Amino acid sequence: MAEQYAIEMRGITKAFGSVVANHNVELKVRQGEILALLGENGSGKTTLMNMLSGIYRPDAGEILVDGKPVSIQSPEDAKRLGIGMVHQHFKLVDVFSAADNIWMGSQEKDFLLHKSRYDRIRKVTEKFGFDVDPEKKVYNMAVSEKQTLEIVKVLYYGAKVIILDEPTAVLTVQETRKLFDVLRRMKAEGHAVIIITHKLNEVLEISDRVAILRKGEYITTVDTATTNEQALTEWMVGRKVDLNIQRPQVEKTRPLLEIRDLTIKNDEGAVAIDKVNFYIRGGEILGVAGIAGCGQKELCEAIAGLRPIQSGQMIHKGENIVGLSPKAILDKGISMSFIPEDRLGMGLAPSLSIIDNMLLKSYRDGKGIFVDRKRGREEADTVIRELGVVTPSAETPVRRLSGGNVQKVLLGREIKAGPNVLVTAYPVRGLDINSSYAIYDILNRQKKDGVGILFVGEDLDVMMALCDKIMVLCHGRLMGVVHAHKTTKEELGLMMTGALDLTGDEGRHAKGIAKDTRFGEEVEE
Amino acid sequence: MKPKQPLFHVVKRDHVSRGQLVLAYVLAVVIAVAVGAVLLTVMGVPFGAFYQKMFTLGLLDNKFAYKNVENFIKLFVPLLITSLALALAFRMRFWNIGGEGQFTLGALCAGAVAMQLGDSLPRIVVLLLMALAGMLGGGLYGVIAAILKVRYGTNETLLTLMFNYMALYLLAFFGETRGAWNFFLDPQSPRPRFMTFPEGAQMLTIPLGKFSLNVSLLVALALCAGIFVYLKYTKQGYEIAVVGDSPNTAKYAGMKVGAIVIRTVFLSAALIGLAGAFCVSSAGVLSTSLTNDVGWTGIIVAWLAKLNVLGILVASALITVLQYGAQAASVTYSSVDANFADLLQGMILFAVLAADFFTRFKLARSAHSGEVAK
Asked: In A, which residues are within 8 Å of B360 by CB distance?
């Protein structure tokens, strides 16, 4: 008799229109093992798991739970079968307490809310060994707490199979380690864990076996112990890939943009950036690291002139740019591109063509009342050619392009304007390996041309390889600027959580204030 | 045992060609008309003859067919201009449902000019002043909601809606309150009644034999072309597209979003006011029912046409044919009244919405488990 698996998916196919998200995919998970589901973005990992958790229904194929064929028509069905999923974007009600978020989906709920629900849920969390306060409101929770709550919720509903969709994307190094401890404990208790990820080092660290998808196709499943990063990448991408990010050495110039004692408020009126000092020289990439919401967005917006500042100075080539209009700042050669979580919300108009999007910042130039689409077409064609944008035509609406191509269009437009300071936030957000490397190349080319680049990133490994210096923010405060080749992930992680403050440390670390600035009294010539 | 599977599920369609889209819409109209035919049969009206009368606007075998065309144009022009104007605001995702109010205000301002200056100035000057007054009246009335939205983030749907009633009752007030100051009313009439405009304030017509062509039709067609070019090729049109698509992106590109919203809404409301001015000047008299619901119908037309200028021309013509034709046909078939047009209009809207759904999605048979789709 064949071995019995906790979950077995056979020949699963799912198409959205002509896009086949999953084609004939096989997946097997044993009880008490951690299976990593590895693949680039758009390879169908999340789609496959959504079918297991009842959000989508497969067009073809069958799912077996504990060896018995089942039909999962809704998340309720999945819950009954003991399958629980922790989504990348948490499904929590912000204004509810932790307990109520669990309670509202539970079977035992009554018409009235009893105080006793807190105790019952506290007992369960203690049993599983989690540190969650049942009465704490979700909006008061840190990201890692919310994630823990999601896991508790899934366990409370009696899940035997737990699916986690990119759980580490929002966590710091230390929090990731804590999460992995939790996963190992669940494994020891006999749960089957499926973790979706595209980070190779995590796969190797946590999983027992790895299932690999590529462009919706099932490639293979291997034992983690017998494989390595290079092999996994080849399966994932389909060919050999050089995993080294280049960091060309460029002669640095004087500071192009200097920020002094900058204080900014966020939309709610709280301080988002608190007396921050830093500078960017031409020909260098300055990374900005920090957990989500530490003020990166507000900082980018302030530099672009989109957000008023409370106090402080922003000095560009010796001139104060505080209070200038976004247009005036653009004209000075400061370009900002911010890729938000939905990728299209800022910087691009999704329903408009590539041509029209090229014109976004320059349509006012030129005389007359008409938009110069001829120039837009030329620019679009150049960007499509030079950056290798895959598109049916320059008239195609941007929202029809894939993520990588959208981001190439955005960066292409910014570079086309010939900036001397390039502020770019999350330029590789959600991109697969190939597109990411294409973007790094673009940035490095700009760096060689003497452009000063502020790179707000998520992936510490990438930032340590690509950037020259990394500045770390925590709750809007500068924790220090470090040389990327001298720092470690642990050090950055500690700074991101505020446990380590290097701003006073003059030793081996880079300083936040440039000595050779050309502003004010310090002009020497 | 095989687990239960639903028979059909909804699947997203790929790109649909323009031809298929038009076909789907035509089919939707045909279906709505067919349902209407069933209704007519139930009522004992021969639907063939009724529809013939309706879609030919009662022009066949009619000695006064030219009169019918003239009246048709009087209905068509206000609807066309209003729908165009609404589309302008809708493209920017500004939900101007205050067409009724802006139309009324435009008509009232134009009417004031007509009553005060109609006798003393040359006709062409009076008409231009009426158009100008209508645009200013409608435009300023509409822009209030835009300013409040930009400044305080108020909801424009609610405000423009309520502003409709203020305008309608203002007009009713002028229509029912007697007084030496109220120059709108006919002093001779025993009951309060709007006075007919002086000759010099009536819309210009170009005589073509017996038929006289209403000049406002030419203006409306020119507006169509103008708005088409405005939206497609000008910098301001580009701004409207970007603001409508993503206000954040517009802000990020350095656009003054608030100013763009106010400017566009003013233009939209001013055009509706112009439609009101044309309407009263063609009718030659004010009336409390002068809007003929164009502020509402215009919304339907704009959406049926997907805010596309050419589409608006077609859709507003179709809707006017329905309304005018049903009126003409009900002369012969008295058991069907003119409200039948509204009913058909509603069914067409539903059918088109359904067609819209099916151009984006299709129903597919669920494959049986184990079977692998290719």
From this structure: none
Is A62 in the B-facing interface, judged by CB distances under 8 Å?
yes
Q: Which amino acid is at A482?
A: V
Residue B300: which H helix or E strand, with range?
Answer: helix B294-304
- Report the share of chain A in percent with pLDDT over 70: 93
Of B4, B245, B367, the CB nearest to A349: B245
Tell me which H or E stretch contains A255: strand A255-265
Whether A482 has a pLDDT exceeding 80, the answer reads yes
Q: Is A316 helix (H, G, I), strand (E, B) or coil?
A: strand
Span A15-62, pLDDT tens digits: 877 778 899 999 999 999 999 998 877 788 888 999 999 888 888 899
Q: Which secondary structure element, helix H or strand E, spans residue A83, and what is its range?
A: strand A83-86
Q: Which of A72, A371, A413 to mutate to test the interface with B (most CBs of B within 10 A)?
A: A371
A369–B372 C-beta distance less than 8 A? no
Contact by Cβ (8 Å): A489, A173: yes
Neighbouring-strand partners of residue A474: A477
| Chain B contact probe: residue of A62, A300, A355, A391 with most B CBs at under 10 A | A62
Whether B360 and chain A come into contact, CB under 8 Å, resolves to no
Q: Identify all chain B residues contacting A352, using CB atoms and an 8 Å cutoff.
A: 241-242, 245
- Between chains, do B235 and A364 touch, taking CB under 8 Å as contact? yes
* A325 and B CB contact within 8 Å: yes
Where chain B has pLDDT below 70, the residues are: 1-7, 9, 14, 366-374
**B296-341 pLDDT per residue, tens:** 999 999 988 889 999 999 999 999 998 888 888 888 888 888 788 8
- Report the residue of chain B nearest A351, measured CA to CA: B245
Could you give the CA distance from residue B133 to residue B106 in angstroms, rounded to a whole number? Answer: 7
Give the pairing of strands B211-214 and B205-208: antiparallel
Q: What percent of chain B has pLDDT over 70?
A: 95
Phi, psi of A483 (to 5 degrees): -75, 130
Q: What is the pLDDT of residues A106-118, one digit of tens each?
A: 777 667 777 888 8
Look at residue B170 in the predicted model and tell me its pLDDT: 95
Q: Which tops the pLDDT comparison, A338 or A368?
A: A368
How many other C-beta atoms are found inside a 10 Å radius of the C-beta of residue B332?
A: 13
**Nearest neighbour of A61 by CB, restricted to B1, B11, B369:** B369
Residue A233 burial (CB < 10 Å; 0-12/13-18/19+)? buried
> Can you give the three-state secondary structure of A144-199, one letter per residue?
HHHHHHHHHHHHHCCCCEEEEECHHHHCCHHHHHHHHHHHHHHHHCCCEEEEEECC
Q: Terminus-to-terminus CA distance in chain B, angstroms?
A: 25
3-state helix, strand, coil in chain A (%, to 5): 35, 25, 40
Size of interface A-B (CB pairs under 8 A): 106
Q: Which residue of A has its CA nearest to B229?
A: A370
Domains defined for chain A, CATH in brackets: 7-237 (3.40.50.300), 244-335+418-525 (3.40.50.300), 345-417 (no CATH)
Give the residue on B whose Cα is nearest the Cα of A398.
Answer: B245
Task: Determine whether the interchain pair B242/A327 forms a contact, defined as Cβ–Cβ distance below 8 Å.
Answer: no
The answer to whether residue B248 neighbours chain A at the CB level (below 8 Å) is yes
Residue of B nearest to A327 (CA): B254
Instruction: Quote the pLDDT of residue A161.
Output: 92
Query: In this model, does residue A2 exceed pLDDT 70?
Result: no
SS3 at position A81: coil
Per-residue pLDDT, A512: 54
The first and second tokens of residue A277, run together, are: 């000092």
Q: How many CB atoms lie within 10 A of CB A68?
A: 12
User: What is the distance in angstroms between the Cα of B4 and the nearest Cα belonging to chain A?
Assistant: 7
